[in-house]
From TrEMBL, chain A:
NCBIfam families to which the protein is assigned, alphabetical: OAFO_sf (TIGR03710)
Domain (Transketolase C-terminal): residue spans on this chain: 462-524
UniProt-recorded name of the protein: 2-oxoacid:acceptor oxidoreductase subunit alpha
GO BP: any one term: response to oxidative stress
Gene3D superfamilies found in the cross-reference section: 3.40.50.920, 3.40.50.970, Pyruvate-ferredoxin oxidoreductase, PFOR, domain III (3.40.920.10)
InterPro entries the UniProt entry points to: 2-oxoacid/accept_OxRdtase_asu, Pyruvate:ferred/Flavod_OxRd, Pyrv/ketoisovalerate_OxRed_cat, Pyrv_Fd/Flavodoxin_OxRdtase_N, Pyrv_flavodox_OxRed_cen, THDP-binding, Transketo_C/PFOR_II, Transketolase_C
Limits of the Pyruvate/ketoisovalerate oxidoreductase catalytic domain: 14-169
Residue ranges constituting the Pyruvate flavodoxin/ferredoxin oxidoreductase pyrimidine binding domain according to the UniProt record: 203-434
UniProtKB keywords: Oxidoreductase
MF (Gene Ontology): oxidoreductase activity, acting on the aldehyde or oxo group of donors
Automatic annotation (TrEMBL), chain B:
Required cofactor names: Mg(2+); thiamine diphosphate; [4Fe-4S] cluster
Protein name listed in UniProt: 2-oxoacid:ferredoxin oxidoreductase subunit beta
GO terms (BP aspect): cellular respiration; small molecule metabolic process
Species this chain originates from: Desulfolutivibrio sulfodismutans
GO MF term set: iron-sulfur cluster binding; metal ion binding; oxidoreductase activity, acting on the aldehyde or oxo group of donors, iron-sulfur protein as acceptor; thiamine pyrophosphate binding
Pfam families noted in UniProt: PFO_beta_C, TPP_enzyme_C
UniProt domain Pyruvate ferredoxin oxidoreductase beta subunit C-terminal: residue ranges: 198-260
Length: 566, 283
């Protein structure tokens, strides 16, 4: 199966508008029925530096970014030299002719941006015109987006943008560029374009999340921004807290009085929340925390991607208490697993985590709109105490889950304490009660295990190679497996979208049977592999690890498939 | 009708003679006077001897982490604006570990009351200097004398133009309960800093020490006069004023939140038709 995807890379300085070009193009492609994977690579600065926005587009499903660049849009002089080595054989480079020959190479199209644009602010439209022409994309898709975007600024603005766009298309058509048009789209169904964080925010709202407190930290922030921008109509209260410690405690307080609360952050911010996570575990008040991973330790690479916070989230909090950790691998899973995370948190009255990363957080995809009517029900706390006697917030039960009431509804009093407490919530130093309560909390683990999402197996379980992965590495693993199969090696993928708790029976036989089981992770120590070893005794003999700040790709995996543990 | 008995009678873990007993009496007296039933009130506390206070009355209680009474208190109030929310904790918890939360609460102005039991010492950890310990006071942890200038919660709150800033004294229950009542009635963040002796670990700021210095602010003090309020907020030494130091009508947080006006978040259910519309906008 030949790769018919086209990889477009827009490079330039922060502030040059490359995201505008990328977003317009991506949206037009999705509307036209194409499959996309967007990868955004940016530096931790507001202006200058070098950023890229890559759109991999194909009529067929694509799951991951890819290295080779087929069209390079060089918005600054640095882009061509920086990305020269990534250019594919058929690559075309678009460079502003004002940047001169120094910024250009063979197969470069010098675009007369100055002549095409009455004002520099229209350069984005000119770039889109050239791209649209090269790809042979129906101009109507871009024109519609120009209209939708600029209509509120007046018809004149729409017309000015459209003119630049049309002129640039016409100019390109006259040039002698041999670039094969993108193959016609086959998908005709209705789709929407979302990135991972947007899907998480929408999944949260679908699950009834109506309270979000946060402290801004890349790449987690956009979950809160989406809730702030879209959540008002849904009745979502969003508050920017003074710090992460406040954010998580505020959410737990809101949850205690009946809100459905979510807190988005990243590793460094989550490190500050750890005390609050322990509180959630102790007072059995649910909270969902989205941890969008980026490279550490400490401030690390603030805008790049990594999967190295699994251990942090797994062990966050002092003492022992049950938890669940989800790790979506696609935009659809971001939506559905966040929905599930809210349900599990409410059902087991525990902290629950959604682990994503910068790559998926910023990665746009075209997805079929979610069927909201088909979503399963979400557990809710009670608001009416109808039992006899005094209400006991921590009544001892077989499941470990106590009937949960929220204060202010009816005469029942709700008492929660971070100290060890009696069944009615009051502080105690009775060591027998301590053991009873610790056992009660621990019993919830059985329920969490019963509800655990099993890993997905893609491919024949008797394959020679089994690529195990979790979270956002799913796409790269699936593509690598497909490429291996094309070259005659049988390969399957085992993707964990829930990484804790693990149910060995769901995957251990597959791992033990595989002639070659390889763990693919975005960290330097193989954190999930170690967790699996700890939980099951199974040792992965082969690891493919990436921790240079970039997302995993099929090529990265295939290049290293021969190597053993580093 | 709500009575003192509704708030129950409990055995406590406090030292005999602790100021907390009087504060507890004043709190209950204020709640009864306000006609609030136990289930209408939520106490949120941190850690320390003062933070145990909510366990010693009948009400809804969220006894969380050290220094963290205000964030959950604000979250709780935003989630259910109908609840009367009272954060109650000590000086170390409120102004030390929770200092940033105190500053943010002053800015945010959520409608709740902070009762800070201020004994100028860490009691539960047995006598280290607290943020309000006087400079030079010798403790086991500060044998050369507390090296830092004491935090002035009154002046900071007035400087931030908090809506209601008061100081009380555990030795004057009648007066204190009146302050708490007014603080709870105030729409917005209200602070009552309550001077109290720590009989076990503060041998300087004793009951007699406070009794000698504390005086009730008279009608001649206008709490709406910022300059006068600041002057009274700075007065701490030979004479210490108790009463409402500063007051204004700054609108509480939440006025800008139309979604919060819909009532308790507990009763909200997501409107899938609305969400469908939001999803459609991503097409």
């Amino acid at each position: 199966m030949p790769d018919i995807s086209v990889n477009i890379l827009i490079g330039g300085e922060a502030g040059q508008g490359l995201v505008t070009v990328g977003d317009f193009l991506a949206k037009a492609l999705v509307r036209a029925g194409y499959e996309i994977v967007v990868t955004q690579d940016y530096m931790s600065r507001i202006r200058g530096g070098h950023n890229t926005y890559a759109v991999r587009v194909s009529p067929d499903p694509v799951f991951a970014p890819r290295e080779g660049v087929d069209i390079l849009v060089a918005l600054d002089a640095a882009s061509y030299p920086l990305h020269r080595d990534q250019l594919s054989e058929r690559a075309v480079v678009l460079v502003d002719e004002a940047l001169g020959e120094a910024a250009a190479g063979p197969r470069t199209l010098l675009v007369p941006f100055k002549a095409l644009c009455p004002k520099p602010i229209f350069e984005n439209m000119a770039a889109l015109g050239v791209l649209c022409s090269l790809l042979c994309l129906d101009a109507a898709w871009i024109e519609k987006i120009i209209h939708d975007t600029f209509a509120k600024k007046g018809e004149e603005m729409v017309a000015a943008n459209r003119k630049v766009f049309a002129d640039a298309m016409a100019w390109t058509a006259e040039q002698q560029v041999s670039f094969t048009c993108i193959a016609p789209a086959v998908n005709t169904g209705k789709r929407i374009m979302l990135n991972g964080n947007e899907a998480i925010a929408l999944g949260a709202m679908a699950a009834g999340v109506n309270f979000c407190s946060f402290y801004p930290m890349t790449p987690g922030t956009s979950v809160a921004l989406t809730l702030a921008a879209k959540g008002q109509k849904m009745g979502v209260v969003v508050e920017q807290a003074e710090d992460e410690i406040a954010a998580v405690n505020m959410a737990i307080g809101a949850s205690f009085t009946g809100a459905t609360a979510l807190v988005p952050t990243s590793g460094g911010g989550f490190a500050l929340m750890v005390e609050g996570i322990s509180l959630s575990g102790m007072i059995e008040t649910p909270v969902v925390v989205v941890v969008a991973m980026r490279p550490g330790p400490a401030t690390g690479l603030p805008t790049r991607t990594e999967q190295a916070d699994l251990n942090l989230v797994l062990y966050a909090g002092h003492g022992e208490f049950p938890r669940a950790i989800f790790a979506p691998g696609t935009v659809e899973q971001c939506f559905h697993l966040t929905h599930a995370a809210v349900h599990i948190a409410e059902k087991y009255q525990s902290p629950v985590f959604v682990l994503t990363d910068q790559f998926l957080a910023d990665s746009y995809r075209g997805v079929v709109p979610f069927d909201l009517a088909a979503l399963p029900a979400v557990a809710r706390p009670g608001t009416a105490h109808d039992g006899p006697g005094v209400y006991e917030r921590y009544a001892v039960t077989d499941s470990g889950v106590s009937p949960r009431l929220i204060p202010g509804f009816g005469d029942s009093l709700v008492v929660a304490d971070s100290d060890e407490h009696t069944a009615d919530g009051h502080i105690t130093e009775d060591l027998g009660v301590r053991v009873t309560m610790q056992d009660k909390r621990s019993r919830k683990m059985a329920g969490l295990l019963a509800d655990a999402v099993p890993p997905e197996l893609h491919g024949d379980p008797s394959s020679d190679v089994l690529l195990a992965c979790w979270g956002t590495t799913r796409g790269a693993a699936l593509e690598a497996a497909a490429l291996l199969r094309e070259s005659g090696t049988s390969c399957a993928v085992l993707h964990f979208s829930q990484v804790y708790p693990l149910v060995p029976g769901q995957f251990l036989p597959l791992l033990e049977k595989a002639p070659r089981a390889v763990m693919v992770e975005g960290n330097s120590t193989g954190q999930l592999a170690r967790l699996i070893r700890q939980e099951t005794g199974f040792v992965f003999a082969h690891h493919i690890l990436r921790y240079d700040g970039l997302p995993l790709t099929a090529r990265y995996i295939l290049d290293r498939l021969g190597s053993k543990r580093p | 009708m709500v009575t003192v008995a509704d708030y129950g009678d409990f055995e406590t873990a406090w030292c005999p003679g602790c100021g907390n007993f009087s504060i507890r009496k004043a709190v209950i007296k204020a709640l009864v006077s306000l006609g609030l039933s136990p289930h209408e009130v939520l106490f949120v506390s941190g850690i320390g001897q003062a933070a145990k206070a909510p366990h010693y009355l009948r009400a809804n209680v969220f006894n969380g982490l050290h220094g963290r009474s205000l964030p959950p208190a604000q979250g709780a109030k935003l989630a259910n604006p109908g609840l009367t929310v009272i954060a109650e904790s000590g000086d170390g918890c409120s102004y030390g570990e929770g200092g940033n939360h105190f500053l943010a609460a002053l800015r945010r102005n959520v409608d709740l009351t902070l009762l800070a039991h201020d004994n100028q010492i860490y009691g539960l950890t047995k006598g280290q200097a607290s943020p309000t310990t006087m400079e030079g006071q010798v403790t086991k942890a500060q044998p050369m004398g507390a090296p830092s200038m004491p935090f002035n919660p009154m002046a900071v709150a007035v400087a931030m133009r908090a809506g209601f800033v008061a100081r009380g004294f555990s030795g004057d229950i009648e007066h204190l309960s009146g302050l708490i009542e007014r603080a709870v009635r105030h729409k917005g963040f209200s602070l009552v800093d309550i001077l109290q002796p720590c009989v076990s670990f503060n041998k300087v700021n004793t009951f007699a020490w406070y009794k000698e210095r504390v005086y009730r602010l008279g009608d001649d003090h206008d709490p709406r006069d910022f300059g006068a309020a600041m002057e009274k907020a700075m007065e701490f030494g030979e004479r210490i004023p108790i009463g409402v130091i500063y007051e204004n009508d700054r609108p509480p947080f939440g006025g800008r939140l139309p979604e919060a006006a819909r009532g308790p978040l507990a009763l909200h259910r997501p409107d899938m038709a609305v969400l469908d519309g939001i999803l459609a906008a991503y097409a």
